[in-house]
Design goal:
Layout (H helix, E strand, L loop, with lengths): L12 E2 L5 H11 L3 E6 L2 E7 H9 L10 H4 L13 H11 L3 E6 L2 E7 H6 L4 H13 L4
Parallel strand pairs: 1-2
Antiparallel strand pairs: 2-3, 4-5
Helix pairs in contact: 4-6
């Protein structure tokens, strides 16, 4: 099975200069926890609800003035729509991440999340292994 069969195509994006408060509002309106940050059609970062809390609010920054580019995660690991889902799960475990932007010809076309893998019964083991790999990398 390929990533294209399970990815989410309706990806919400913002620019690096979008205010974090607006990013949070977009997340609330769409009931999502991740927004990709793009310059034109190129994905340059990813911002999660956790990024907003840890990198803005917990550091005492004003969410009304902080920009997405200041709190986003960079160095994204991406896949293509033709990437095998087993490979995507391995990548999540290896890189200790829960989401992979899906890019075709340099253009963002979707996102695949750990939960997408878990929905497909045949991939529960891979999702579990990926989550285990991610959890092992988290230090409390």
């Amino acid at each position: 099975m390929k990533v294209r069969e399970i990815m989410t195509e309706d990806v919400k994006t913002v620019t690096p200069d979008t205010g974090v408060e607006n990013v949070a509002r977009l997340m609330k309106e769409n009931d999502i926890g991740t927004v990709l940050v793009c310059e034109g059609s190129k994905t340059i970062g990813l911002i999660t609800d956790r990024d907003i809390v840890i990198r803005a609010i917990a550091e005492g920054k004003n969410p009304s003035t902080v920009k997405a580019g200041e709190v986003m995660s960079t160095n994204l690991v991406e896949v293509t729509p033709d990437t095998d889902v087993h490979e995507a799960a391995e990548m999540m475990a290896d890189y200790q991440i829960k989401r992979l932007p899906v890019v075709e010809n340099g253009r963002l076309i979707g996102i695949v999340a750990l939960g997408d893998l878990a929905i497909e019964e045949i991939h529960i083991d891979e999702a579990g292994n990926a989550l285990s790999g991610i959890s092992q990398g988290i230090q409390h």
